[in-house]
Write a structure and sequence with these properties.
Length: 236
């Protein structure tokens, strides 16, 4: 593999937006390390992408398990020695049928935060140092308009709060990495026809993944610390 080839880790990539993001980045010549909790499903998707002519590897990952995150980081370090792209796509929504904060179970909030916030924190801590080796990195946090404070409403409170917190992580990381050529941004892919979005969603995975892939390949000097939908900045 060429030493100047970009390496990307995409989490939750065995289906939906993660899979389509992997495909779009692979089309641009990025080598993808596809990750998922379910190893059999992840490896099947890797074989699918390889059959399409893309160079894709696999590593199991549970974003809620610090040891699993460290094992991934060690794998990247041993196999490649550097990393250029991290797409924090893995996420859950456990309370889409919950319309009121007063019905929220704290256990549901804790489980949602563990995946949607703690996971990206652990991955950022473990993998951004591999970006610093070459002074180049792109971190994309897959968020949601449901987490926008400017349009905050009721309904699915644990999901909303987790995405608001993920946006805060984006701003904090971008500030700490200012001037390092490691760009960190959040993205709202819109309501997409995935297992989470359901069959009635108006957007295709291809449409949803477009801005994710765009942010993952921003040129030097591109935006950082922003929130984007359809390649345009949106309010926090």
């Amino acid at each position: 593999m060429a030493s100047d080839r970009k390496i990307a880790v995409v989490t939750g990539a065995n289906r939906g937006l993660g899979l389509e993001t992997s495909r779009q980045l692979a089309k641009q010549g990025v080598y993808i390390i596809l990750t998922s909790r379910d190893q059999a499903k992840g490896q099947a998707v890797v074989q699918q992408l390889q059959s399409e002519g893309f160079e894709v590897g696999y590593h199991p990952l549970d974003v809620t398990d610090a040891a699993s995150v460290q094992q991934l980081a060690q794998f990247v370090r041993d196999q490649f020695g550097h990393l250029e792209i991290l797409v924090n796509n893995a996420g859950i929504g456990l309370d889409f049928d919950n319309g009121s904060l007063f019905n929220l179970q704290i256990e549901t909030l804790a489980q949602t935060l563990q995946t949607n916030l703690y996971g990206p924190i652990l991955l950022s801590q473990a993998l951004i140092p591999l970006m610093q080796i070459r002074g180049y990195g792109r971190v994309v946090n897959v968020s949601s308009g449901a987490g926008q404070l400017s349009e905050m409403n009721s309904g699915y409170p644990s999901y909303r709060m987790s995405k608001t917190a993920l946006n805060a992580l984006t701003r904090i990381l971008a500030n700490e990495l200012q001037g390092s050529n490691i760009l960190v941004n959040s993205v709202c892919p819109g309501w997409v026809r995935t297992d989470m979005g359901g069959p009635d969603a108006p957007r295709t995975p291809e449409q949803g993944a477009d801005t994710i892939a765009w942010l993952a390949t921003l040129p030097d000097g591109g935006p950082t610390g922003g929130f984007f939908r359809d390649r345009q900045p949106i309010p926090w």
